[in-house]
Amino acid sequence: MLLFEELYKLQKSKTSGVGSYTDLYKTYETAFVDKYFEKNNTVLDVYSENPYGQDPYEFKFGEYDGKGGHARDNRLKGKEGWMYNREHMIPQSWFNDDQRIRCDAHFVWPTDKMVNQWRSNNPHYEITNGKTSQNGTKWNSSYCEPIDYFKGDIARAYFYFQLTYNNKGLSNNGSYVFKNVFPFFQENFLKTYQKWANNDSVDIIEIDRNNAIAKAQGGIRNPFIDYPNLPSLIWGNGTETFQNLGVAKTIK
Predict the structure, then answer these.
(1) How far apart are CA 145 and CA 152, in angstroms?
(2) What is the pLDDT of residues 5-36, one digit of tens each?
(3) Which residues does residue 138 pair with via DSSP β-bridges, in sequence order?
(4) Which residues on neighbouring strands pair with residue 64, listed in sequence order?
(5) CA gyration radius for the chain?
(6) Which of 45, 46, 216, 229 qualifies as a FRET site for 105, CA 20 to 30 Å off?
(7) Is 39:117 a contact under the CB 8 Å cutoff?
C-alpha cells in the first residue's frame, strides 16, 4: 500500500507533460512503429499485428480517422483494415471523458477502428465464446481478449492507469475492473492481469514505446515497464523491497 501511494504521488506530479488529443497521432509515429516484425515502419497495432507470420493488413501513419487522416481503402469501410484511430485501453466513459486524462499515450493506443468499435467500452479479460479479428483478438458483449503476445502490454497499461489516475476510472463499466480501496482492482481482474503480465514479460517493444512516450509527454513513464516486478511488490505477499534502478533501456 505504501509503495503504491508513493509511486502515485510521483506519477501525479508528472501528468502535466501529457499533451493534447491531436498530439497523440504525432506521438504514435515514434512510439508505435513496427521495427520488430515486418520492420517496415508501419503502425504497430495490437489488434492487427501477427507476430508469427504475415499481417492480415497494415496501416501507414496517415491512414487514421480524423482531421488530416485518410482511409486505407474506402472499399473496406465498416470492415477491418479500413483505418485506425485512438483507442482508450481504459475507455473514456470510465473516467467521464476527463480531458486531462484522455490524451495519455501510455494507455491510448493506435488500433484498427472497427475492432476498437466492436470492443466497445468493455474490459479486457479472458473469454471462451466470441467473435475473432483477423489476428485472433476475441470479443463478445462483455469483454475483449487480446492475443497472448500483447496481453502483458495491455495488463501493464491497466496497472499504469490505476497508479497514475487512481480512482478516476470507476464510472460505468470501470467499476467491474477497479475499486476505490486497496488493491484498487477487483480480485478477478487483478489476478488475470498479473497472470498476463507474468506470461508475457516486458520486451524491447514496450521499452522503446515507454521511452518514446516519455520523451513526447514531458518525462512521464510507465513504471511497470521499467520495473516488471512492481505488480508483485505492490500486490504480492513476498518480502522483496523496491530498489530504484533507474529506467529500462533494453533487454539483456
Answers:
(1) 12
(2) 999 999 999 999 999 999 999 999 999 999 99
(3) 132, 145
(4) 84
(5) 17
(6) 229
(7) no
Residue 58 contacts by C-beta under 8 Å, 6 or more apart in sequence?
A: 34, 38, 40, 42, 43, 48
Helix, strand, coil percentages (3-state) for the chain, rounded to 5, are 40, 10, 55
Helix (H, G, I), strand (E, B) or coil at 66: coil
The three-class DSSP label of residue 129 is coil
What is the rounded CA–CA span in Å between residue 216 and residue 27?
A: 6
What are 78's three cell numbers? Answer: 465498416
Instruction: Average the pLDDT over 170-175 and give the result.
Output: 94
User: What phi and psi, each to the nearest 5 degrees, are found at residue 93?
Assistant: -65, -20
For 231, the enclosing helix (H) or strand (E) is: helix 230-235
pLDDT at 238 over 80: no
- As a whole number of angstroms, the distance between CA 92 and CA 242 comes to 32
The residue behind cell 473516467 is 95
Residue 154 in grid coordinates: 495491455
Q: How many residues are recorded in the chain? A: 252
